[in-house]
Amino acid sequence: MPTRPARLLVVLDADSTLIRNEVIELLADEAGRGAEVAAATEAAMRGDVDFRTSLRSRVAALAGVDEGAFARVRARIEPTPGVVELIDAVHRRSGIVGVVSGGFHEILDDLAPSLGVDVWQANRLEVVDGVLTGAVDGPIVDARAKAEALRRWRDEHAVPTSCTFAIGDGANDLEMLAEAALGLAFNAKPAVRSRADLVIGPVDLREVIPLLPAG
Q1: pTM
Q2: Active site residue 155
């Protein structure tokens, strides 16, 4: 069955965009290494270090955490203010919402549908005998993969390029923001604010709604 066409496509980053949290930091809290991983995440989001290298090293800090941590982390997730209203506004305009994340399917597979997200992609964590090994399972979702996801969803849903929007906060979102017709820096690091088409100041995703085509 062909994928239904859509009038517009809005693609968001997950951590610090769709949600207020950085999931890898919450998981690292379970290993008693939250502060260490938070500092590494901040450096990666500023663009100071290579994202793939940084992600592998941060995931390595999760080795030994039991998979029950996923449920505990999901209980701590805080959706960003305005996210449900933005998603509803996109759907009222016959659009689709995608999320592409350097975070993890283990959290997003529960969170995304609960918020009304249509399509999503993220990394997976390797688990053996109920315990995280400290490795990523499969290809890493990095800046290039984020841009490729936007292109793929755009083409699958026959969305005009002029009706594509990307929203992100970190350096690994820059290629995705450049791929969209309108790239929005949201709750963003300086490197992202300086290169985005538009900067959203308040941490409230309702600020994006006036930028969408009329319903």
Answers
A1: 0.94
A2: no
Contact yes or no for 49/37 (Cβ under 8 A): no
Q: Is 13 considered catalytic here?
A: yes
Cα(151)–Cα(32) distance, rounded to whole angstroms?
A: 38
Amino acid letter for position 138: G
Q: Is residue 61 part of a domain?
A: yes
Rounded to whole angstroms, how far apart are CA atoms 104 and 67?
13
15, 118, 169, 173: the catalytic one is 15
3 inside domain: no
pLDDT at 169 over 50: yes
Instruction: With cut-offs at 50, 70 and 90, classify the pLDDT of residue 38.
Output: confident
Domain count along the chain: 1
Q: Read off the pLDDT of residues 75-122 as tens digits, 9 standing for 90 and up.
A: 999 999 999 999 999 999 999 999 999 999 999 999 999 999 999 999
Beta bridge partners of 136: 125
- H-assigned helices in 7-133: 23-30, 34-46, 51-60, 69-74, 83-92, 105-115
Annotated active-site residue in 13, 29, 118, 169: 13
Query: How confident is the model over 74-85, as pLDDT tens digits?
Result: 999 999 999 999
CATH of the domain at 169: 3.40.50.1000
